[in-house]
Amino acid sequence: MIEIKPVSKIDAAVSVPPSKSYSNRALLVAALADGESHIYNCLDCDDTRYMIKALKSFGINIVEDKSKVIVQGCNGSPQRPNKNIYVGKAGTTMRFLCSFSALCPGETIIDGNWRMRQRPLNDLIDGLSQLGVEVMSLNDNGCPPVKIKGRGIKGGETSMNGDKSSQYFTSLFLSAPYAKKDVIIKVNGQLTSKPYIDLTIDLMKAFGVNVTNDSYFSFSVKSGNGYKARDYEIEADVSSAAYFFAAAAITGGRVKIENLKPATLQGDIKFTDILRKMGCVIVKGENFVEVQGGDLTGIDVDMNEMPDVVQTLSVTALFARGETRITGVPNLRIKETDRLKALAGELSKLGGRIEELDDGLVIIPDKLQACDIETYDDHRMAMSFALAGLKISGIKITNPDCVNKSFPGFFEKLESLS
After folding, report:
1. Is the pTM of the predicted complex or chain greater than 0.85?
2. Active-site residue list
């Protein structure tokens, strides 16, 4: 357990870690590519550790040094692992490897921790099955562990529901260039978290593969045109930056993120637009974004394209005047925890009046008070609720080490703001 020290008014310039989303995608794409890739500024956290360890099990030669990760690609032909793959609670690693495993001969079993065994893969399993991949949930519940019988990806046309996770689509995209035929992926309903799709397409293009996007209703990837190895630098993680933007908002101070490009494709950059509407001043340069706190007011906002900053916004809303209504994020219930339920419980403990919706929350600030925050082994719960401790004395975060999933050193960085 760690207790957060309150601060007065923050005035700080900080750098944040590299993007987890770009890092895990780049590692897998480099593993599939033809030739040797150098991944610079790759995030070192639990999730990328699981990805690197898994890729090595598929026979991928990966060497890490202080400045880069060197990946010797397999040109679309990974080897069969000699043991089961374990990914802990790394959701992107689990989902991306389901399609990747179809490219190697023989059976691959991928498993995770207790929570991963509760997170659904039905849509991805259905999508892969339509492309000729034999994949099954070993517990017959649509969740890990999963077994993939690798005989390649036949290709053709498939469809998946779009409302649960864009990562299912990314999984198919990343391995589709090595299918035996062109791959067409149709979206049933509306696609959630569209910026993550843009991010995936951007990275694939950097390695020489184009994805045709038909207004997010369908996507196509041509076979026979694999990735070309290259040097690639990972940009800063906007989800991580959002905690420090919120710190400025909550304390009425100023935080400048020095290594962040406002033109990023990461959807969470729009969090600064939300803070502006709530009363903050936003300053953007070519390679920095600065937030200056103001007199905060509540907001009504659909967060479908920014699900990873919902917890950050929820805690910020406790320090705003009036009601904040967050909608559009029913898929938060299948993340590292049921994030809507967890948020409702912990925000209430802090003294907020909370209404839990099917797809979001209503947050009304009330008499705030100190309490111990349960993190549910969810990195974003720990980091978001730590922000409340910047204003409320006595906030303690249980299981603080869970932040290592995406942001090792977070609490040290937060303490440096004071």
Report:
1. yes
2. 308
